[in-house]
Write a structure and sequence with these properties.
With 217 residues, the protein is of the alpha+beta class. The chain has four helices and nine strands; from the N terminus they run E-E-E-E-H-E-E-E-H-H-H-E-E. It folds into two domains: 5-140, Nucleoside Triphosphate Pyrophosphohydrolase (Alpha-Beta Complex); 146-207, Winged helix-like DNA-binding domain superfamily/Winged helix DNA-binding domain (Arc Repressor Mutant, subunit A), CATH 1.10.10.10. The chain has helices at residues 50-62, 126-140, 157-168, 174-184; strands at 5-17, 20-28, 37-38, 41-43, 68-75, 85-94, 108-115, 187-194, 202-207.
Length: 217
């Protein structure tokens, strides 16, 4: 084994599709772990900033740029990669589902979305990375506006409430939620409405600070 240390970035990409929290995985087309599902990622280029590497990998795997991306943790167990000493800096990204245009990178056989309760066996230590990213996402619901990153350009309060319920995997009281979220001052009415079936038209909202996560005090 070489004494050189290589650096990679791996990205946990979350979205909400089909009323479930989904994670983007790729099926590896090369060794090691050929044919195994894994998080998207790649090696850091010699003259590349680490954050730029993560953004590049995100863009190459999803066709998306300019979305919320946060550094998660550094994983550096000596035996985490059979190719040698590889340290990975993990990130997680939150993407509204309508903005994703999936494309398999040159070293991937396939790409797809998976629910948290239907995950395949993952390559490397990606199960540990994914678990930590999910725990971070759930925790930040309580003290930030991170859930707003999943929202489309316009949405109803019911749409936003559904996001919280999907991530937390538990119901949220409608009246208290609406009072709380409107009191934050981070969303505003668009002046438009959306009708669904025979129900009264629902007001449409938008986020005031798109692609920015605020800490709630």
């Amino acid at each position: 084994m070489s004494s050189n240390v290589s650096v990679t970035t791996d990205i946990v990409i979350f979205t909400i599709r089909d009323e479930a929290l989904k994670i983007l995985l790729i099926r590896r087309g090369a060794k090691p772990y050929k044919g195994r599902w894994a998080l998207p990622g790649g090696f850091l280029h010699a003259e590349e900033d680490i954050d730029d590497c993560a953004r590049r990998e995100l863009r190459e795997e999803t066709g998306v740029s300019g979305v919320y991306l946060e550094q998660l943790y550094t994983f550096g167990h000596p035996k985490r990669d059979p190719r040698g000493r590889v340290v990975t800096i993990a990130y997680y990204a939150l993407i509204p589902s309508e903005r994703v245009q999936l494309q398999a990178a040159t070293d991937a056989e396939a790409v797809g979305w998976f629910s948290m309760d239907e995950l395949p066996r993952l390559a490397f230590d990606h199960d540990a990375i994914l678990t930590m990213a999910h725990e971070r996402l759930v925790a930040k619901l309580n003290y930030s506006t991170i859930a707003f990153q999943f929202m489309p350009e316009q949405f109803t309060l019911s749409d936003l409430q559904a996001v919280y319920e999907i991530i937390r995997q538990e119901p949220v009281d409608k009246r208290n939620f609406r009072k709380w979220v409107l009191g934050l001052g981070h969303i505003e009415e668009t002046g438009e409405e959306r009708r669904e079936g025979t129900m009264r038209p629902a007001r449409l909202y938008r986020t005031k600070y798109r692609d920015t996560v605020a800490i709630i005090k």
